[in-house]
């Protein structure tokens, strides 16, 4: 006979304990086998947004001296490896005067990509002296193609696509930011 009485050799107290242990076993099996499946079933965007909320970026002002003009941007700082990996991935919008400044501890060629990045960007690669050594304009969202500085750099400033051309920012212009002082 199936059901609760199939262990008729157990007394009432032991039957309750047996049922409780079976429920506990079922619950543990559910957690081990079904929860990973449930997490995988979440849309990638939902897990990405959770990751984006857990990565905290401090903010700073960056100025770019271009000819007779100075352009100011309010940027988030990517200073740690976790922040470098996250960057602007999964962002759907960026204010016209906003961006992200990636600062590295040592000068070396820098390679970036646009994987999981919704926004087209201008990438300004910055040398030890604060001068822009290269600009990658209008990068392609979601592209896994490597975007390289080609030469040694200590930082990358990411801005909305078209900003460099619109403001006349070019190679040789100088970027000023407190966060760059340690990298120089």
Explain how this protein is built.
This protein has 184 residues and is α+β, with helices and mostly antiparallel strands. It is 30% helix and 34% strand. The protein has a seven-stranded mixed beta sheet with strand order 5-4-6-3-2-1-7. Strand 4 and strand 5 (132-136) form a beta hairpin. It starts with 11 loop residues before the first helix and ends with a helix.
Q: Give the fraction of residues assigned to helices.
A: 25-40%
Shape descriptor reads: elongated
Q: Biggest sheet, strands in spatial order?
A: 5-4-6-3-2-1-7
Determine Rg (CA atoms, Å).
Answer: 26 Å
Quote the average pLDDT: 84
Straight-line N-to-C gap:
80 Å
**Could you tell me the strand content as a percent range?**
25-35%
Low-confidence stretches: none
Total beta strands: 7
Largest sheet: 7 strands, mixed
Broad structural category: alpha+beta
The arrangement of helices and strands along the chain is HHEEHEEEEHEH
Number of helices: 5
Give the arrangement of secondary structure elements.
Blueprint: H1 12-41, H2 44-54, E1 58-66, E2 69-78, H3 81-86, E3 98-112, E4 121-126, E5 132-136, E6 147-160, H4 163-167, E7 174-176, H5 178-181
How is this structure best summarized?
The protein contains 5 helices and 7 strands. With 184 residues, the protein is an alpha+beta fold.
Main attributes?
7-stranded mixed β-sheet, 7 strands, elongated, 30% helix, 184 residues, alpha+beta
């Amino acid at each position: 006979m199936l059901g609760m009485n199939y262990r008729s050799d157990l007394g009432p107290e032991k039957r309750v304990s047996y049922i409780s242990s079976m429920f506990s076993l079922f619950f543990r099996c559910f957690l081990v086998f079904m929860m990973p499946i449930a997490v995988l079933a979440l849309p990638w965007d939902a897990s990405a947004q959770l990751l984006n909320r857990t990565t905290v970026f401090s903010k700073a002002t960056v100025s770019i001296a271009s000819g007779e003009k100075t352009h100011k941007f309010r940027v988030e700082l990517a200073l740690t490896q976790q922040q470098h990996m996250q960057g602007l991935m999964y962002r759907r919008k960026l204010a016209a005067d906003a961006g992200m400044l990636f600062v590295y501890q040592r000068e070396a060629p820098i390679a970036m990509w646009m994987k999981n990045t919704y926004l087209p960007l201008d990438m300004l690669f910055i040398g030890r002296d604060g001068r822009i050594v290269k600009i990658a304009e209008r990068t392609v969202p979601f592209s896994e193609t490597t975007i390289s500085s080609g030469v040694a750099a200590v930082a990358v400033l990411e801005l909305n696509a078209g900003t460099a051309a619109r403001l006349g920012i070019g190679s040789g212009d100088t970027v000023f930011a407190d966060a760059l002082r340690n990298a120089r």
